[in-house]
Amino acid sequence: MTPLGGKKKFMSEINVTPFVDVMLVLLIIFMVTAPMMMHGVEVNLPKVTTRNIKTSEEPLVLTITKNRKIYIENRPVEFDALEPKIKSIFKYRKNKDIILRADKDVPYGFVIQVVAKVKKAGINKLGMVTEPLE
User: Fold this and answer.
1) Does domain 47-132 have CATH number 3.30.420.270?
2) Residues 44/105, Cβ–Cβ less than 8 Å
3) CA nearest neighbour of 86 among 58, 117, 55, 57
4) How far apart are CA 111 and CA 18, in angstroms?
5) Residue-level pLDDT, tens digit, the chain, 134 residues
6) 0.85 cut: is pTM over it?
7) DSSP tag of 95
8) Bridge-partner residues for 90, per DSSP?
């Protein structure tokens, strides 16, 4: 009972202020941390002027680091196991697209050897990732 003798009424409205506060804090956290969440193996890409390629399906990312280590997505792969690994990955995929990210300090001959393994595995579309010239 209230001091005037009336009955207490329950508030039937939803108070969204705490919800908005929590959502704003989460938004700020994600905005700050999103640029730091770069995935993949770190490589120093060469800079060139080219245009982007369009693909309908997410292509597989093949990375070569400056110390000649090869990664499919983020998993290390030995050079000799590259061809069978690519064949098994693309066995049931419709689009056979690979994006190659090679460090600019990797010898050209080694990159061509990796490209030859990719072609031997039956991949016809191979794109190379570069950074734009300033």
Assistant:
1) yes
2) yes
3) 117
4) 55
5) 556 666 777 777 778 888 889 999 999 888 887 766 655 556 666 666 656 555 556 778 899 998 999 999 889 999 999 999 988 888 887 778 888 888 888 898 999 999 999 999 888 788 888 777 76
6) no
7) -
8) none
Cα 64 to chain centroid, rounded = 16
- Taking alpha carbons only, the member of 41, 68, 52, 74 closest to residue 129 is 52
Q: Which amino acid is present at 127?
A: G
Residue 16: Cβ-neighbour burial (10 angstroms; 0-12, 13-18, 19+)? exposed
CA proximity to 103, closest of 49, 35, 53, 42: 42
**What's the token pair of residue 87?**
């064949």
3-class state of residue 80 by DSSP = helix
